[in-house]
Amino acid sequence: MAHKVSKGPRRIGRPPAGAREGEKVKDYPQLSIRLPVDVKAKLRALSLIASRPQWRIITDAIEAYVRQRPDSEQRMIGELAGRSRARATRSRR
User: Radius of gyration over alpha carbons of the chain, in Å?
Assistant: First the structure.
């Protein structure tokens, strides 16, 4: 009879699933938005079909939208987003 080799105690629950290595979704700032019923239904359907959380679909949609903007707007978006990140980092200290 073969024996299973244990790698240590298993953790309960889902593994951390941030956008980048080592990040946890629970540490992300929260955003509350209101959506029309049909848009929310589409988001839910996309999430189920793609087997991805809704926050990832929204993140991908925003990234795709930014890529479609003219280069000058992309630079401005990057600059403004960088300022916001720096401000948020300073306030967490």
Answer: 19
Q: How far is CA 82 from the centre of its chain?
A: 17
Of the candidates 89, 66, 68, 87, the one whose C-alpha atom is nearest the C-alpha of residue 78 is 66
Nearest 10 degrees: Cα torsion 44, 50, 56, 62: -90
Q: How far does Cα 58 stand from its chain's mean position?
A: 8
Please list, residue by residue across 53-66, b when 16 or more beta carbons sit within 10 angstroms of its beta carbon and e when fewer do. eeeebeeeeeeeee
**Using one digit for the tens of pLDDT, what is the confidence trace for 44-92?**
999 999 999 999 999 999 999 999 999 999 999 999 998 887 777 666 6
- Number of C-beta neighbours around residue 1 at 10 A: 2
pTM for the whole structure: 0.68
Q: Give residues with Cβ within 8 angstroms of 18, minimum separation 6.
A: 24, 25, 27, 28
